[in-house]
Amino acid sequence: MSRLVHEQGRNLMLFAAVFFLLECVRWYSVSVEGNVTVANKNQSELEASPFNCSGQEETNEGTVLFNQDVRIIHTVGIPRTGSTFQRTLLGLIANLRGSDQARNISLLKHHPPLKLSLGPSKMLFTTVNSSNTDLKQEGFSWSGGMVAYTQRYAEFTSCPLCEISRYQVIFNLTRDEEFQLRQYMRYWSILRQCCGSQMSKFMRAQIVGCSFALDFNVEGRIDYHMCGAMNLSAVEDSLTRTVLYSRFPKSHLTDNAAEARLKWAQKGDCKKSHDNVRAGLGFNLQKFDKHAFCNKLQRNVQVDFGHLH
Ligand SMILES: *[C@@H]1O[C@H](CO)[C@@H](O)[C@H](O)[C@H]1NC(C)=O
Ligand SMILES: *[C@@H]1O[C@H](CO)[C@@H](O)[C@H](O)[C@H]1NC(C)=O
Ligand SMILES: *[C@@H]1O[C@H](CO)[C@@H](O)[C@H](O)[C@H]1NC(C)=O
Ligand SMILES: *[C@@H]1O[C@H](CO)[C@@H](O)[C@H](O)[C@H]1NC(C)=O
Ligand SMILES: *[C@@H]1O[C@H](CO)[C@@H](O)[C@H](O)[C@H]1NC(C)=O
Ligand SMILES: *[C@@H]1O[C@H](CO)[C@@H](O)[C@H](O)[C@H]1NC(C)=O
Ligand SMILES: *[C@@H]1O[C@H](CO)[C@@H](O)[C@H](O)[C@H]1NC(C)=O
Which atom of ligand 7 is nearest to the CA of 231? Predict the structure, then answer.
């Protein structure tokens, strides 16, 4: 008897599991097959959906699409997962699509904890270590829509410029736009890593003259950017002559003047930031002791064979 109940219970659970699985698949395939010209599909349907397919990370990559109702693009990131890269890229895209349609599209960048309510006029992008669960753990929650695209750290670091093609479908980027975005982001990435007060710590080590800064243990790292071997004013020239820099000179490079002091924002900032390091101003322009910095970084290099930033 108890065995029968047990069996029935198990069958019921199996049925429920299959039912929910099918519902999720159905819901997803509806989204995928639907008319992709209509972005953010049907928000009310989405909110009303009783089926929480969070196994799918509440992400609907390739099916949440930009449309003419979108006024706000949110980007929410775990710090140090390439959130500035995504912000810069989306800033350019917002300018492109905004100028197409002669309207302003706001780009808002956030870090958790945070609560967002989406809707037909909003899109959400995220950057995470490995999944959106990371963001939930840090206190980010949202309702009323799906994440349009999630940038994952391992994929991002292995090929930052490859990220750009993932935005093609979402924003209906033309081939020219995609190439122009890569043209811009290629040089921007170098300046992000090598200049401004958030430059790579290895560049800082080289400027300061840490004894181990030029050593196979450093130069052999995956996350080493060989900033010292590049003519960075030539890279600044290259960025400023790109198509998109000419169209949107200071497009979302920084959110405000305070941030513009910390990050590369215009030609000449590379030299300024390197001079700052020589003058003892480190990460985010905080005063630092060169000797202690070198010692600490050297210890980290010895123990750390993974990514430092
Ligand atoms: C999608 O919608 C557009 C505009 O409403 C329409 O022209 C097109 O035929 C639709 N495509 C499909 C596959 O339903
Ligand atoms: C995508 O853009 C092209 C022009 O580049 C346009 O012809 C096409 O209709 C657009 N598609 C959608 C789905 O908006
Ligand atoms: C969205 O879905 C709701 C509920 O299923 C439906 O009542 C409404 O007509 C749909 N709206 C559109 C634009 O398809
Ligand atoms: C979906 O389920 C997960 C855990 O099962 C929960 O944390 C999350 O809040 C749910 N999301 C919604 C939109 O109900
Ligand atoms: C966009 O915003 C700028 C500055 O806030 C404003 O001057 C301009 O009129 C806006 N353009 C449109 C089309 O709303
Ligand atoms: C994400 O990665 C950062 C940097 O490696 C780490 O400090 C943080 O704890 C990670 N967060 C989660 C939720 O895994
Ligand atoms: C670096 O590039 C700049 C700008 O193109 C150029 O003027 C300068 O001579 C170059 N410096 C060196 C050391 O080649």
Answer: 1
